[in-house]
Design a protein that fits this description.
Order of helices and strands: EHEEEHEEEHEHEHEHHEHEHHHEEEEHEE
Structural class: alpha/beta
Number of strands: 18
Radius of gyration: 22 Å
Mean pLDDT: 95
CATH superfamily of the largest domain: Glycosidases
Shape: globular
Number of domains: 2
Largest sheet: 8 strands, parallel, barrel
Number of helices: 12
CATH architecture of the largest domain: Alpha-Beta Barrel
Strand content: 15-25%
Low-confidence stretches: none
CATH class of the largest domain: Alpha Beta
Length: 438
């Protein structure tokens, strides 16, 4: 079974800012990168051109008509649904699955549709002043929201990233997922969830396929990067999740978070130790945010975020688009980062990573020369007689260490090898990782 690799993009900011820009060259590039699912954010028509919208374009999460596509994404606006169908067809032709957002908590202040509408409250959550809360106590709300999801599933959408589900009644979500899967059993539901204590409920009871692990692995790696957290917490999070781990969605970037290469996060696109841990530690799906693989730092945006509210023209994304289409495009540094991502994603496709078992080695390195349990991380991935050792260095110094493979790991994974008493000597570059076959 292949490891799910999701690529999130805003078509508004890709190429010429249209669905047509998500073209064969783009999709061939993504397929070659190892992507399995394309998540297009901002497809469904949202509020724009109104005094209450945020930015000059408006938020993709302030939906104005859930049965329509944003006209500005179409080459011929009157044919936008047809162009959407063509986009889905192109994605499928390249062997990829297609994901869009489902926003079940709120809609834009000017929401309207031709299908009977959605019952609404007269207030909004938090500072989302461009939205109105959906009223799940009103008669007909459940069926209205079900019809929306079914509408897009019937048009070939393979999955839904469900926004802010913790603000929506879980009993409705459970009903919705079960009802949709009766007709579309392969459709995937991904939940944006932040309360770790509710992870199990959303997986086992509500029956989401995957959850964001924002409050788990992402926050741990973020704290390690900032210098106030310990790599030991990677183990603690892994232990907390236990059997839920394969149902998490790991990531280092998305539209809500600051870019990895921005000064507000790590300040560098080549922090490969973070990539290795998030991508290789387990069989969980992994998500890339468009341009992450070339070190996009959102220097044109606000505090390290690529804007979801404006018709921005990020030069770094333009360079990637041009490079994909055979033009000069990427700088030498960006190409080097891309090569590292290509190598890492190819490694993640190996069965030992995509479906194998994980063995955390940190507990038995406490007295090993050169290994700092707060700033280094080591683990094995194993399947059917094939084992890889991964060691990550989260520091700005070259790391020289000796890694020991305990007899317990040999017995548990049935490795068929004798661990060297002296251990394995390794040298790892700053912010990097190494992987060797045992």
């Amino acid at each position: 079974m292949s490891k799910h690799i999701i690529y999130q993009m805003l078509p508004r900011l890709w190429g010429e800012g249209s669905m047509a820009s998500v073209d064969d060259a783009t999709l061939s590039y993504l397929k070659g990168l190892g992507i399995t699912h394309l998540w297009c954010t901002g497809i469904i028509r949202h509020s724009t051109g109104q005094p209450f919208v945020k930015g000059d374009a408006g938020s993709p999460y302030a939906i104005s008509d859930y049965y329509d596509v944003n006209p500005y994404l179409a080459t011929v606006p009157s044919r936008r649904i047809s162009e959407f169908r063509s986009l889905v067809s192109r994605v499928h032709k390249h062997g990829l699955k297609f994901i869009i957002d489902f926003v079940p908590n709120h809609v834009g202040c000017d929401y309207t549709d031709k299908h009977g509408g959605i019952p609404l409250c007269d207030w909004h959550d938090y500072d989302w002043s461009d939205t109105i809360k959906i009223d799940y106590n009103a008669p007909g709300t459940w069926e209205a929201m079900y019809r929306i999801v079914r509408f897009w599933a019937s048009k070939g959408v393979d999955g839904f990233r469900c926004d802010m589900v913790e603000l929506v009644p879980p009993e409705f979500l459970k009903w919705l997922i079960a009802k949709i899967k009766e007709e579309f059993p392969e459709v995937v539901f991904i939940a944006e969830v932040y309360q770790k204590e509710k992870y199990r409920m959303y997986i086992e009871d509500v029956r989401f396929d995957f959850l964001y692990d924002k409050s788990g692995l992402y926050d741990v790696l973020r704290s390690v990067t900032a210098g106030h957290g310990t790599a030991r917490a990677i183990t603690w999070n892994w232990q907390f999740l236990q059997d839920l781990q394969p149902r998490m969605l790991n990531f280092l970037e998305n539209h809500d978070e600051q870019r990895l290469a921005s000064p507000w996060f790590s300040g560098r696109g080549d922090f490969y130790a973070l990539l290795c841990t998030s991508l290789m530690l387990n069989t969980a799906p992994f998500m890339l945010y468009f341009g992450q693989e070339t070190g996009v730092d959102a220097s044109e945006g606000h505090e390290g975020r690529t804007s979801i509210f404006n018709f921005a023209k990020p030069e770094s994304l333009r360079r990637l688009y041009d490079w994909i289409h055979g033009e000069k495009g990427l700088s030498a540094e960006e190409q080097d980062i891309l090569r590292h991502y290509e190598d890492a994603l190819a490694l993640a496709s190996e069965p030992c990573v995509s479906e194998g078992e994980t063995f955390d080695l940190c507990y038995c390195q406490a007295v090993s020369d050169g290994f700092d349990a707060d700033r280094h991380f080591a683990f094995l991935r194993h399947v059917d007689g094939y084992t890889r050792l991964f060691v990550c260095n989260f520091t700005d110094l070259e790391a020289r260490m000796t890694i020991r493979i305990p007899q317990h790991a040999v017995d548990y994974l049935q490795l068929g090898l004798n661990p060297a008493p002296a251990g394995i000597s390794l040298t790892i570059k700053p912010f990097d990782y190494t992987s060797i076959v045992l």
